[in-house]
Amino acid sequence: MNKVTEVEIFPVIDENRTHLLQITGPRGGLRAYQKPGSNDPLWSVTTIIDRAVAKPALLHWYNKQGREAVAEKLTPSIGKELTAEMLEQALKAAADRPRKTKDEAADLGTRAHNMLSAYIMSRIEQTEEVITVPPDLQTVWESFHEWEENAGISQYLKTEFSVYSESWKYAGSVDALAWSESGKYLVLDWKTSKSGPYPEQAMQVSAYAHALSYPLSYMEGVPTSEWNPWERIEPWVIRLGKDVAEFEAKQVTNPQMALDGFLHAMEMWYSLGLPGLTDKAKEELAEHFELPDKLPSVW
User: Are 292 and 197 a contacting pair, CB within 8 Å?
Assistant: First the structure.
């Protein structure tokens, strides 16, 4: 069953449109968004990138996880007779290990995002809320504050909100928006991982920044013809260490190239027949959208 969540839009330029509906398939599968009252899907930025952009490092990681699982299962039996049952258990562990490890990392990442969101909200609302930091998130917390001390943040504006592009039919969730001491909007995306940031993450945060461009120009009362988003908005990817207190912050210095890459990836996704949009997924999404009978195809 799909999970449907209301996600707040920011900035609000239409009082009648303050939220999007975020629709996530079972087990965190295909994700899309929808404007209330609309029958059209706004495809998730991360869904598009996950299904259209090659990630060689991820394939290597999956293989490594499988090899390690087999070794752990069979090492205690070295010198003994290998049975069919032992082999089957080892192969099952190899198949299950990447998903289990990925789910655990995703859970930690979600809880880290929630913790940082609570902290940023306390800064925005100027409350004295004490943030509870679980032991397994203590290193992420320390990494975040090391970054924050060097980030030149003048003011946090919003955390955990949705953005969308009407013309390109995509949407996504922004981790945080801040105002810098140098007078720029900072679109911030946290990553809790041992490595990165990666180019596809630059594409992701640049797509968010592009979707923010019109509402921010509207909020400031600047005509779009006079608004250069890349002079006013800086997309950033911040990797926060979870094993060692460290951070790596990268500004997307060529956001137009990163945006073009994302839009080309979106076109690629369409030209491949929308991988991930299985017959089952179509049935599930039909509860929310009017999908066309014939989806885009190269054939």
Answer: no
Helix axes 138-150, 84-125, angle to 10 degrees: 40
Question: On the CB side of 60, how many CA atoms lie within 13 Å of its CA?
Answer: 3
CA distance 251 to 255: 9
Averaged pLDDT in 10-residue chunks for the chain of 299 residues = 87 89 75 86 93 86 92 91 92 92 91 96 90 95 96 96 94 97 97 90 98 93 91 97 95 98 94 80 77 67
Question: Of 207, 206, 152, nearest to 184 (Cα)?
Answer: 152
Inter-CA distances, 42 with 15, 32, 48, 294, Å:
20, 6, 11, 18
Q: How far apart are the first and last CA of the chain?
A: 31
Per DSSP, what are the bridge partners of residue 178? Answer: 156, 186
pTM: 0.91
The Cα–Cα gap between 31 and 172 comes to 10
